[in-house]
User: What shape does this take?
Amino acid sequence: MDYQRPIFLFLFGVILLFLLFAVYAVYLYFNQSKYVYFPTSDIAATPSDAGLF
Assistant: This one.
């Protein structure tokens, strides 16, 4: 069964990259208002956004 191991590693890598991309896409979706038009007043007002920068 050693000939199937590269296939399993390849599928695992593809699934892992897909999960990372899905998490990043969800993160950008919930933070899109901050990254699309950069509200400087909101960034300066909220401590959570100030902590990110």
Remarks:
- The radius of gyration is 19 Å.
- The mean pLDDT is 72.
